[in-house]
Structure to design on (1338 residues):
């Protein structure tokens, strides 16, 4: 044997000493792996032709989290170190024609699936040299970035007990501990109060009656005069960013059911929330007199069989919800000549570069573009009348259609011209109050949507009066909106020539049901985003494409991980004895109508309410500041960086830094991040390669996929002890330790029920896996044989008992489940075959129901601030603030933001292989025409200013700021008058800055701060004291309504 | 391994030393003479190759996998590996670039397979185009003839390879390559100016089928480096990583000597071209434009 590699196969001593020197006496960034030297010493004993990455014991399957799509991944390790990540061939997410699920992992080693560059670089997310290993406590004022390392247990005691936690640095404030906030722990009392608050909400009980009934327990409430503000527990806020199924419920169990706070708030309104909500409402069913159920948040075109794809502002090869799934069928279609694409986007995106036509629309006019299309379609008789006319299920069945619509369900017109509720059959004496009415041969007919007997077709265009009630059909109402402007006028609004509008619409209506409209974030991150979304959804309905091959349908979804289905082993709803019912209005006032609360006192409300949305991230800090509906006392932030990602986030920095507004601020983060740096305490978290989850399938999977995220590398954080068990410091450990200290329900011994403990992470997550394993359907995992069981152990040989202990894992389950669960773990999930996609000419996983062109519940709801009614149909609206006032700053440029394919908002700056190497800094994208006007050359530095930030300044803490300056990137591929800035640069934390830990300076990497971050520029709402403009129905924060001025430097 | 000759055992430092001392071409000549007989560390060896999983679907991707196994069943001298890149299908995601960096443990600054982006036209008639540019594995590789120690050479299967043990790091080849496909390993780490060099930079990598830890003074640090079509994967029955990870399925790989292969079919396209054909380098990488 020739030793070709004279390399010293271990981490050199020098490197260790170097890091120690950097770190002084602290070990907050401890050595990477226990026994690292041993590992490396063993690493190299290769023979010629060796390739250990195809040895099955060096491979573990899991799920990505470099973006939210959660692609299935295949992680390859050398001596416990992850070195390469590829796509998992078992899953259609990462191998279009996936390998059979029954394939033994030993036989799958040579097949790698596809993955995007973010996924490929994921190793560098986990092995970030700035990873936080131990708990940091601030040693100066918030934002000073002076820290001390404290033991985990001490940190838990401090945040639970409170007190004068910072007296040693001269702060005399008495800080409330969690024990002082989480005071309602009696499940019976909580349940009784919750039920009565529900009654107050329905006006079935008065506040006085409530106070009398609960007079002994009023001290639990934030405000006894407003019981609907809920218990004081609600003054604990948990704000979370990108979290996935499984971990989501784990944290909800803790926040909502154990801590009893209603305030579990995700970051989704920064993302595609309005798209999700708009789709959900537009596909909702109607049963027993109520809308609800059956709505789908992400129907998407079937790219494998589309013939015409009209893309609005979603960068489907770069971001959106699944470049890995979307690229292949689209490039195949373009190449084979099957597919033609048009892209409506102010910027020449990568997908636009493949398009037959690029339509560089003015930002925020997507809905106007759609209305122009609708006008032309109606004028030229190019829409699917049959599909739209079918008013009942029976009518659809009779025509061989898969769905039907409410296009003909009459709507009452009130106050002159306001479209309000659907007319009910009872109102004109032809049926019940649960029935709608359509016109048929000039006569009103009662309709039950789900009716399987009466095949009723309605008149598409009705405009009449019945028994004194003025009514119109939804299609009539939409037609009037579409015809409110001529094509020339729509062209003026959108900036797209009439001939292009016509040409695109002609194409769109030339492929029957094999045409589709796709959008996600682009059209909706505007104040008019809801209406844009509804208009684009309706375009799909007008060609009747739902559920047809080549049309639009829902994703395949995954198996139920929460055990709600019959036959599943762990129904989590039943596995929380003494659960504390949370109740009250969330701090974001989501899911509540202003008018149904005791806080109603006419218009304008102090802040907006979001009855149709949830997780309204931009509202949390501003509401805490306004103490509306109440102030908060403690907050925990994890996987989220509001100062980086909430538009205009810096406007809330003073709230974060103010101990009066946020007395206790805790973060759980993998790093000292752009926001966690402002905290009182930072607890270390583990990354997606070290933790559990059961994320759902992506938007573009047509078959059922349940990926399992599981620990694939040894966690880098310190090992702590909770409930007598060793585990890595992590969000889970933090929550469990607090639960232990507070002695709250749902965690610890017998937490799931008699004899079922929750003392280790896998006690929870393996039950999710078991539910996936045993849910009914195809490809149910089987018992593994000995060879697979052996592989299961060997491939985890690098994990310490704190994270992998076979006996303890087994104990989380029933003995008979174990071998089947291992089967799923060995494959990284449970996956259907690609062959389950179609059934003849239809898609198997169907929307299968109502297509809603009109949303009466939206039309009957008012904006809490402006007091104006919303519209139940798509309209074109300019940029409006919360008072309904037009925002027009008369600045030269509209600002848009976007993501590069290798970047995910705030968390890819540690990815040296991709983001850092490919584009060391971003720029300010502008058209050469504009650049010339301003005398700017490519590469010149420019400062950017906006109405909300007239100086162009980024506030870093109360005393420190920097100008918003970037390099001009002069291109042709952007509409003149628009500038674009990508959103993954310009960090001021996350390893970019120097910090002091235990007196030693940890030098940051300047390159992580390179480039420009547009966040400080976003337009704020003039009425809301530092909150971004927002779309009021779906709740989206506006990202593309800001006007800016560019100052050459 | 008995097949190793003494020549191969001579590492590049002793080679340089010997060259300096002797100062004549004799030793180098002998090195040249032997280097072709010292088969590439991966090449020439018959290692057991895994069959494909049963029940794989019939699409272009699995067809390439199948054809790869078929080609490997032949003697290496009967293979001629080529790559076909369909620009119409390349979405410019640079996943190949990154996968390649990970697969081959490339240091900062080194890229085997960049994706070159151009913007063409003026507003509103404008396009972005993407051109992945691996090593062309030329039939007449200009990099080979300039190598003073014959460390770089054309393998019988068409791959232009580097013998790290022989490479003296003179970088003549970097200048000679008309495609800029050659890189130099200066010995840097991505995380060297941070609190801690990370483990993924210090574990063994298996380029050319040999486990090497990138450590100062040892290969591949101080060597010229380049795309080798992931020969360590090919020999195990795996497609190059740029092929497997390609989201747009724009990159094809296979044996030109198999007339029934997908790649053979593809280069019959009217859209086919090669880069800098006028130089007479005869690349083994074809583009469909």
């Amino acid at each position: 044997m020739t030793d070709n590699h004279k390399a010293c196969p271990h981490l050199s001593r020098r490197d260790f000493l170097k890091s120690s020197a950097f770190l002084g006496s602290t070990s907050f960034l401890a050595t990477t792996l226990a026994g690292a030297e041993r590992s490396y010493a063993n690493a190299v004993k290769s023979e010629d032709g060796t390739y250990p990455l195809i040895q099955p014991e060096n491979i573990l399957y899991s799920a990505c989290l470099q973006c939210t799509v959660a692609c299935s991944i295949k992680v390859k390790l050398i001596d416990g170190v992850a070195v390469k990540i590829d796509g998992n061939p078992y899953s259609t997410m990462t191998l279009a024609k996936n390998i059979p699920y029954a394939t033994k992992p030993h036989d799958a080693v040579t097949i790698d699936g596809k993955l995007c560059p973010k996924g490929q670089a994921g190793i560098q997310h986990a092995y970030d040299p700035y990873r936080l290993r131990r708990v940091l406590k601030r040693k100066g004022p918030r934002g000073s970035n002076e820290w001390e390392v404290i033991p985990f247990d001490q940190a838990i005691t401090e945040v639970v007990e409170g007190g004068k936690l910072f007296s040693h640095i001269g702060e005399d404030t008495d800080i409330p501990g969690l024990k002082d906030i989480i005071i309602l722990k009696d499940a019976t009392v909580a349940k009784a109060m919750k039920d009565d608050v529900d009654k107050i909400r329905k006006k079935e009980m008065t506040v006085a009656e409530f106070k009398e009934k609960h007079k002994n327990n009023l001290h639990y409430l934030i405000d006894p005069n407003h019981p609907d503000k809920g218990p004081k527990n609600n003054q604990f806020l948990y704000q979370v960013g990108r979290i996935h199924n499984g971990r989501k419920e784990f944290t909800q169990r803790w926040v909502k059911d154990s801590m009893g706070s209603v305030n579990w708030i995700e970051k989704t309104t920064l993302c595609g929330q309005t798209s999700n909500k708009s789709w959900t409402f537009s596909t909702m069913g109607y049963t027993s007199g109520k809308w609800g159920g059956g709505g789908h948040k992400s129907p998407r075109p079937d790219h494998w069989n589309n013939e015409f794809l009209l893309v609005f502002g979603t960068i489907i090869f770069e971001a959106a919800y699944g470049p890995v799934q979307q690229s292949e069928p689209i490039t195949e279609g373009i190449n084979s000549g099957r597919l033609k694409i048009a892209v409506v986007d102010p910027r020449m995106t990568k997908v636009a570069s493949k398009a037959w036509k690029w339509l560089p629309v003015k930002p925020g006019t997507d809905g106007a573009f759609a209305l122009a299309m609708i006008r032309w379609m109606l004028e030229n008789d190019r829409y699917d009348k049959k599909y739209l006319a079918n008013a009942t299920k029976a009518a659809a069945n009779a025509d061989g259609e898969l769905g039907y619509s409410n296009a003909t369900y009459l709507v009452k017109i009130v106050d002159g011209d306001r479209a309000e509720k659907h007319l009910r059959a009872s109102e004109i004496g032809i049926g019940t109050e649960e029935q709608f009415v359509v016109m048929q041969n000039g006569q009103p007919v009662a309709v039950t949507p789900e009716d399987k007997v009466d095949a009723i077709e309605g008149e598409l265009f009705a405009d009449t009066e019945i028994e004194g009630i003025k009514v119109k059909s939804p299609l009539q109402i939409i037609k009037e909106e579409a015809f409110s402007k001529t094509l020339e006028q729509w062209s003026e609004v959108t900036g797209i020539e009439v001939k292009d509008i016509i040409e695109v619409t002609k194409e769109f209506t030339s492929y029957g049901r094999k045409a589709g409209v796709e959008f996600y974030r682009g059209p909706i991150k505007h104040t008019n985003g809801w209406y844009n979304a509804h208009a684009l959804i309706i375009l799909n309905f007008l060609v009747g494409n739902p559920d047809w091959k080549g049309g639009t349908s829902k994703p395949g979804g995954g198996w139920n991980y929460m055990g709600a289905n019959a036959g599943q082993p762990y129904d989590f709803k039943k596995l929380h004895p003494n659960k504390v019912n949370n109740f009250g209005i969330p701090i974001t006032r989501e899911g509540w109508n202003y008018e149904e609360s005791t806080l109603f006192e006419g218009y304008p409300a102090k802040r907006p309410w979001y009855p149709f949305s949830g997780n309204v991230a931009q509202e949390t800090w501003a509401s805490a500041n306004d103490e509306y509906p109440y102030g908060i006392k403690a907050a925990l932030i994890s996987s989220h960086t509001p100062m980086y990602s909430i538009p205009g986030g810096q406007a809330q920095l003073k709230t974060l830094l103010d101990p009066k507004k946020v007395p206790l601020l805790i973060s759980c983060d993998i790093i000292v991040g752009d926001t966690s740096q402002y905290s009182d305490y930072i607890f270390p978290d583990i990354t997606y390669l070290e933790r559990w989850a059961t994320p759902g399938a992506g938007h573009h999977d047509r078959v059922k996929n349940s990926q399992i995220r599981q620990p694939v590398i040894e966690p880098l954080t310190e090992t702590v002890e909770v409930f007598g068990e060793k585990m890595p410091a992590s969000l889970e450990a933090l929550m469990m330790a607090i639960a232990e200290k507070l002695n709250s329900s749902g965690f610890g011994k017998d937490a799931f029920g008699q004899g079922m403990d929750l003392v280790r992470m896998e006690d929870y997550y393996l039950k999710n896996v078991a539910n996936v394993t045993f849910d009914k359907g195809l490809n149910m995992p089987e018992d593994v044989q000995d060879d697979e069981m052996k592989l299961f152990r060997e491939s985890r040989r690098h994990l310490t008992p704190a994270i992998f202990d076979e006996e303890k894992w087994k104990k989380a389950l029933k003995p008979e489940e174990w071998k089947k669960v291992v089967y799923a773990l060995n494959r990284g999930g449970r996956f259907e075959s690609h062959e389950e996609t179609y059934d003849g000419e239809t898609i198997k996983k169907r929307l299968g129901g109502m297509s809603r062109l009109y949303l009466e519940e939206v039309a009957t709801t008012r904006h809490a601030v402006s007091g104006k009614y919303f519209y139940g149909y798509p309209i074109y609206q300019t940029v409006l603030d919360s008072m309904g006032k037009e925002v027009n700053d008369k600045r030269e440029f509209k600002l848009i933001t976007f993501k590069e394919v290798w970047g995910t908002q705030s968390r890819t700056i540690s990815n040296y292989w991709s983001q850092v190497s490919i584009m060391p800094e971003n720029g300010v994208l502008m058209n050469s025409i504009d650049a010339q006007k301003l005398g700017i050359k490519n590469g010149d530095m420019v400062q950017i200013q906006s109405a909300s930030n007239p100086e162009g300044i980024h506030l870093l803490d109360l005393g420190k700021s920097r100008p918003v300056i970037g390099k001009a990137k002069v291109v042709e591929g952007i509409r003149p008058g628009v500038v674009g800035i990508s959103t993954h640069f310009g960090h001021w934390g996350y390893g970019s800055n120097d910090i002091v830990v235990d007196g030693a300076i940890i030098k940051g990497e300047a390159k992580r701060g390179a480039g420009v971050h547009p966040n400080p520029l976003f337009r704020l709402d003039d009425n809301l004291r530092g909150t971004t403009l927002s779309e009021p129905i779906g709740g989206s924060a506006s990202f593309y309504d800001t006007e800016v001025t560019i100052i050459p430097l | 391994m008995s097949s190793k000759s003494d020549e191969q055992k001579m590492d590049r430092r002793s080679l340089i030393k010997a060259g300096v001392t002797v100062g004549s071409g004799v030793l180098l000549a002998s090195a040249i003479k032997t280097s072709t007989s010292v088969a590439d560390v991966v090449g020439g060896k018959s290692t057991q190759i895994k069959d494909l999983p049963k029940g794989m679907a019939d699409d272009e991707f699995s067809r390439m996998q199948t054809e790869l196994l078929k080609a490997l069943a032949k003697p290496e001298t009967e293979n001629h590996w080529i790559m076909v890149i369909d620009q119409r299908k390349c979405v410019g995601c640079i996943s190949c670039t990154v996968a390649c960096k990970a697969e081959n443990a490339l240091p900062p600054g080194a890229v085997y397979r960049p994706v070159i982006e151009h913007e063409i036209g003026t507003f509103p008639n404008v396009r972005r185009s993407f051109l992945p540019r691996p090593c062309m594995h030329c039939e007449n590789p200009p990099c080979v003839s300039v190598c003073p120690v014959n460390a770089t050479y054309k393998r019988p299967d068409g791959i232009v390879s580097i013998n790290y043990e022989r490479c003296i790091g003179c970088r003549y080849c970097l200048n000679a390559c008309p495609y800029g496909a050659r890189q130099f390993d200066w010995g840097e780490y991505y995380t060297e100016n941070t609190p801690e060099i990370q483990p993924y930079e210090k574990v063994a990598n298996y380029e050319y089928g040999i486990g090497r830890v990138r450590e100062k003074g040892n290969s591949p640090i101080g060597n010229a480096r380049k795309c080798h079509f992931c020969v360590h994967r090919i020999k195990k029955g795996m497609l190059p990583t740029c092929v497997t990870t390609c989201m747009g399925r724009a990159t094809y790989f296979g044996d030109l000597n198999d007339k029934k292969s997908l790649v053979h079919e593809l280069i019959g396209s009217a859209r086919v071209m090669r880069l800098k054909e006028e130089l007479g380098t005869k690349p083994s990488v074809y583009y469909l434009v």
